[in-house]
Amino acid sequence: MKISFENVDKVSALLTLNIEKADYEDKVKKALKDFSHKASLPGFRPGKVPASLIQKRFGTEVKAEEINKILGEEVNKYIRENKINMLAEPLPNEEKTPQMDFETQDDFTFAFDIALAPEFDAKLSKKDKLTYYEIKVDDALVDQQVQSYCQRGGQHVKTESFEKGDMVKGTLTQLNTKNNTLKDGITVEDAVMLPEYMKDNKEKEKFEGAKLGDVITFNPAKAYAGNATELASLLHITKEEAEEMKSNFNFQISEIMRYEPAKLDQDLFDKVLGEGVVKSEKEFREFIANDIKKNFAGEAEYQFTQDLRDYILGRIGKVEFPEALLKRFMKLRNQDKGEEYVEENFEKSLPELLWHLAKEQICDQLEVKVQHEDVLETAKHYTRLQFAQYGMMNLPEETVTNYAAEMLKNEQQAQGLVERTVENLMAAKVKEAVTLKTKEVSMDEFRKLSEKK
Question: Residue 100 sits in which domain range?
Answer without folding.
Answer: 2-116
